[in-house]
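Why do we bother with holo predictions? Because pocket geometry can differ from the apo form. Keep that in mind while you read this record for zinc ion.
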Amino acid sequence: MLPIIDGHNDTLLAATSDRAGGEFLAESGDGHLDLARAEDAGLAAGIFAMFVPNEGDLDYDELPPAVDHERARRVVDEQFATLHDWADATDRFRVVGGIDDLDACLDGEAVGAVPHIEGAAAVSPDLINLKSLYENGLRSLGLVWSRPNAFAHGAPFKHGATPDIGPGLTEAGFDLVEACEELGIVVDLAHLNAAGFWDVDATIDAPLVVSHAGAHAISPSSRNLTDDELDAIADSGGIVGCTFGTPTSVRTASAGPTRRCRRCWITSSTSPTGWASSTSASGRTSTARRSPRQSATYGGSGTCSRGSKRGGSTGPRGKPSRTETGAAYWLHGGTNPASGRNF
Ligand SMILES: [Zn+2]
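The structure, written out:
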């Protein structure tokens, strides 16, 4: 069986909130993921997201309000504890702390969880607790969910809209990206707006990772990745997880009613086959890195708040273009905004 590494799941959110799908160690027909079904499906590992739930109703065309830092820390602490409890309870599940753990999971020894925080609100703006989060297992950090924080701003889920919306990283955001690279924490660009994306691109040398997103050329949501961004990810040797979440996969807001699978929220207008073609589009050979700020399509409302830290966010990364490397796609079972769940 081909081992699968899932780029993003919200299992910890489900387990620690009052929403359905809270069981993981016990087989269940609810939710997206439990250990028994993960084993049956050949899941080697997944990026297990820790996420602070939104409060109140959301307008998905706008950025939701920021969450309180202290609340975010409490929620992340609880979700971290839940993850470690699961790993302590069985040898069939482990927290991935390094390559050896991941290799063991790919060899079938256990299902692995790469601890991830989606939206860095739980990180202190002075980064004082980042090292302790790493020591607790954090290996992947999404700078934002689609709401602002001390580090970046995020992109709304607006259809028929460009991701080139809002400013890029803050000073603390640049510091956080550098600190993550130094510690060995993956910087996840999911949910960033265009300015934030290019600021990260200009700051780190590591491959660019977007754990869950769609292709803007197929589904023009401000949440999705433009061809320029996909080219940059491919050139860096990076990776994109493809989300099947309805809000990021419908082609346009005026495309008419879509039939929706009750279990997986894949719409009839965007089948897995359709997404496979997007893989080809994103993985195409590119001869040079391009910046949206140099293109006619993107006028550049966002500006790099720190400027050219490493040769400028509009310039090349200063290393050979790895044109043989296409951006690969992980599978990601999307979740449903109608239920208020994260995606
Ligand atoms: Zn998400």
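Residues 118, 145, 190-191, 212, 342-343 surround zinc ion (CB under 6 Å).
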